[in-house]
Design a protein that fits this description.
It contains 11 helices and 33 strands. It has 601 residues and is an alpha+beta fold. The strands form 7 sheets. Strands 8, 9, 10, 11, 12, 13, 14 and 15 form an 8-stranded mixed beta sheet that branches. The two termini are 55 Å apart.
Amino acid sequence: METMLSRGCLEAIGVRGEKPPNPVLQILGYKLLQMPTGPERYRLMLTDGESRSSSVMLATQLNHLVVSGKITENRIVRLQNYNSTELRDGRRLILVLELEVLNVEGVQQEGVIEDKQATVGQAITPQRNSEVIQDPLPSPTFSGHSRPPNLAALGSPDTPGSQGRCMPIASLNPYQNRWKICVRVINKSDIRRWSNARGEGRFFTVDMVDESGEIRAIAFNDECDKFFAQLEINKIYYLSKGVLRTANKKFNTIRNDYEIAMASQTVVALCEDALVTLPQSSFQFIPIAKLDTLPKDSLVDVMGVCQSCEDLTTVVLRSSGREVMKRQVHLVDESGKAVSATMWGKEAEQFSGTGLPVLAIRGARLSDYGGCSLSLITSSTLMLNPDIPAAFQLRAWYDQMGSIMDVESISIRKGSMSPWTGANVNWKTFSAGKDYILGASEQPDYYTAKGTVIFVKRESYLYKACSIPDCNKKLVSSSNGSYRCERCAREDTKFKYRLFLQVNLADVSDNQWVTCFHETAETILGQTAEKIGAWKEQGNEEAIENVFHEATFKSYIFRLRVKMEHYNDEARLKAVMVDVHAIDHCEYGRKLIMDIRNMAA
């Protein structure tokens, strides 16, 4: 196979500043550059058959091509996307953003290759690495003892309203002092306050993308006031004269090693060129079915159809005692799995789920709470019905077949989860639950069983809890007749009754003691905590006794969470009743028929 090199293209790029499309070049050698900070970089020696250049840098996202051996000496490549930058000494640095490796053995040209002694139809055979990277022009030194060159840039960044020559995000690094980028804002945080020993202030962050990647910008104090109103989500801007610095991955989850700090000289201008098109966001979607294979606290991009959403609720944060709004939504995708995601604050208040929209979530935190679930954090990005092909494909799948599928959830949807089907049901008898040693690992295990209530303890079954919604802390009586909540740090004469039961369950194989909290306890007893509390205040012990008596020898479908706990160096299996359902005998009969068929298969 023979391939024509793009003769003369290196001169067009390096001397005249042109950008020939998709040039085909040959690699004569490469060199690893040890950067003082940030990732490693590779410098290439390329030839087009007439001239050669060693002022070529490989973008860090392409380093794997060298490591895997796809880029080697004599290899022919096609540059699909690249950018050139003028250096202070007058040379131009070529940054390769995308390339295609061509597996060819020969290169044919119409003439003599001037920089090597090769004949027509022959590939250039370079010397070894130590002799290949030799350039008549002085080459920049990249080492731990000398600073990399300051890549000055791009025409005139002082004229922000016109595109000029903008750099891609992927080519930015802290050793440039003149650059300009054209980006789309995909996320903007609220203004936040900070306070420490050095003082206090305010800041906000914006996440931006272009065709090459993404980056975060942060503005403090005066710059926060200056740019917050100017920058709007989904609009395109020219940005220059910011300060590039290494990103702190403790607070910055953007897939970029650097971030931009807004300064007093930073220039931001709205792009009014209708011909400029940039992606709305940069997603790396993970199928819902694969989420439970990832480590806890991973940050993931997920897209799914909002099959249902729960009511807005208020919770009190333990760390600060502050009340925040939250809402749970349940997403499904083409993998046939569903997962619950929790929204917070304004997003939770403004979201309604009307029309079963497609949600694209970027940077959600993976949790093992309730099986496997997602939570949106401050750096997460939420898009409704995004204008991307993957969203259109997902919508078509859901309308055609997804809406009628029996979808399995990898999250426990309390009160709405079917007790009969789904991957997280895990039917077992009480004896099998013990034989399989469930709950012995670091994470709790869940299983479903059909059982009968044999006995309900009456000791400490009722307590007075804090009256604030979503705070169920047991109250401490005060001498003045009021009650104190240690969690909320407040005293009040009001309270609410809550139930706490120890129940013994049995099936044909064994019995199991379980703990029932308020909601499941009310289902087992068939009465509300407030009514039982009123009877207790009135001294109506007979009515309470009847409730406990009537609760026994009734059968249910139980969802249990089991975890091995240690008390005084003794291991005990603790079981908690997560959910309880009355038995639908038709559904249970179908389940038994399916079990018989599976055993007979």
